[in-house]
Amino acid sequence: DWTMAEFRAAKVAQIRAQVGSGRVICGLSGGVDSAVAAVLIHEAIGEQLTCVFVDHGLMRTGEAEQVVSLFRNSYNIPLVHVNAEETFLAGLAGETDPEKKRKFIGGAFIDLFEEEARKVGGADFLAQGTLYPDVIESVSFTGGPSVTIKSHHNVGGLPERMNMQLVEPLRELFKDEVRALGMELGLPQAFVGRHPFPGPGLAIRIPGEVTKERCDILRKADAIYLEEIRAAGLYDTIWQAFAVLLPVRSVGVMGDGRTYDNVLALRAVTSTDGMTAEAFQFPGDFLPRVATRIVNEVKGINRVTYDYTSKPPGTIEWE
Ligand code: XMP
Question: Which residues are recorded as binding ATP (predicted)?
C-alpha cells in the first residue's frame, strides 16, 4: 500500500524524468484537481512551469479570486489570469443546446489558452488535472468503444492541436485520493475539501440560454444553499450540492401581488467517485428553510424544488 508521501515523492521523480529541462504549461480550471496537479508539478520542476487560468466568468461567488490568491500569494507560483467573461457570455448568447454550449465553452477555452501559451513563449508539455473517472467517462475521445455521455472540456483535443506531450500526474487517482494528496502538499483544507465543480461551470447549471443576469441570480441562490449546508455541518458529508436555474417560470404570490418568476432546483448527492450517485436526504426542516430564504432573498426566483434522482439513470449535473 502506498502512502500519499510516497506517491508524492514518486510522482515528483516521474515528472522530472518525463519533463527534463522542458517547459510545462498548466491550465487551471479553478477547481481542486488542476490546482493539486499544478502544485505537485511546481514542486517537481519549479520555474519550468507556467500556470494559465482562463476565467470564463461562470464560477461561483468568490471562487476565481480564491484560486488566484492561493497561487500568487500562498505558493508564489507564477499565474496568468485571463478574465474572459465577456467572450464566453457573447459566445453563449442564444444557445440552448447542452452539447453545443459545452462544445463552445471547450473550444473557446482552448483558443484562449493557446493564445496565452503563445504569449509566454510556448511549452513542450501540457499539464492537466485529469482523474481516473475522467479517463473512463471520456474514452470515446480516444476512439474507445463507449459513447460520449457529456463532452468533458478538460480532456481531449488540446494536446494534438498544440503539438505538446501530456503531463497528467493524477490520472490513476480518484477524488478522495486527490484530496489526500492536496493535504499532503499543504493546500488549505477548505480548498481541498471543496465540492467538485464542472469545467463549463454555471453554464451547465442554467438549462437554456445563459445570460449574465441568470448567472447572477444562480450565484446568489447557490451561495445561500451552500451557506445553509455549511451552517448545518453537512458540507463534508455531501459529494456535491448546487442549484440549477430552470428555464421555467411559475406563478406565485408575494404580499398582495402575483409573481411570475423563475423556478430553481436544488441538487445534493452522495458519491465516492461521481460515477454513481444517490440523492442526499436532508434532515426534516432543512429544505423548507432554504426554499423560504431563497425565495425571500433572491429576486427573480419564486419557487424551489428538490431533485431526488439517482445516477444512473440521472446524471449529477442537469446538462
Ligand atoms: P455527471 O453530470 O456526468 O457528472 O454525472 C459527473 C461529475 O463530473 C462533473 N462534470 C464535469 N467536470 N468537466 C469537468 O471537469 C466537465 O465538463 C464536467 N461535466 C460534469 C460533475 O460536476 C460531477 O462531479
Answer: 29-35
